[in-house]
Amino acid sequence: MKIALASDHxxxxxxxxxxxxxxEKNLDYQDFGTDCADIPVDYPDMALPVAEGVKNGEFDxxxxxxxxxxxxxxxxxxxxxxxxxxxxxxxxxxxxxEHNDANLLVLGGRVVGPGLAIDIxxxxxxxxxxxxxxxxxxxxxQEIERKYCGQ
Length: 151
Ligand code: RB5
What we know:
The chain has one domain (2-149): Sugar-phosphate isomerase, RpiB/LacA/LacB (Ribose 5-phosphate Isomerase B, Chain: A, 3-Layer(aba) Sandwich). It has a five-stranded parallel sheet, sandwiched between helices. It starts with a strand and ends with a helix. With 151 residues, it is α/β, with parallel strands linked by helices. The chain has helices at residues 12-24, 43-55, 70-76, 90-98, 114-126, 133-149, and strands at 2-7, 28-31, 61-66, 84-86, 104-108. The protein is 48% helix and 16% strand.
């Protein structure tokens, strides 16, 4: 599984923890920045390459972080085909995979601590999509994308 990840300055410290976990688990990832917590960057700039990398199939999944997680989630979800889920707990991490086939996990660097964040990432990476009635609902999301984004 190939994972793209990025954060703004407010998500940088937690992103480093996530990278440590991915390295420990021998998971293949590419970090699209940012590279420090001291220099502010704009979260849409960080979200876009990860969302595009997942959309075009270069990566299987993406992980994004900002202070709350909200900004990068909003930005990433503008890319058709991206289903970015902001998770603060393992229940939503599991559910967003089973029910929503979330291809992008979003974490708030100022919201969750490193221990919980790693549990969230672990559950999210290990959980599969349940299909069935959930697939029908995802097809309806695609219809919305077609209506408003032409794809
Ligand atoms: C940066 O200060 C902060 O606004 C950003 O990380 C994020 O929380 C936005 O949604």
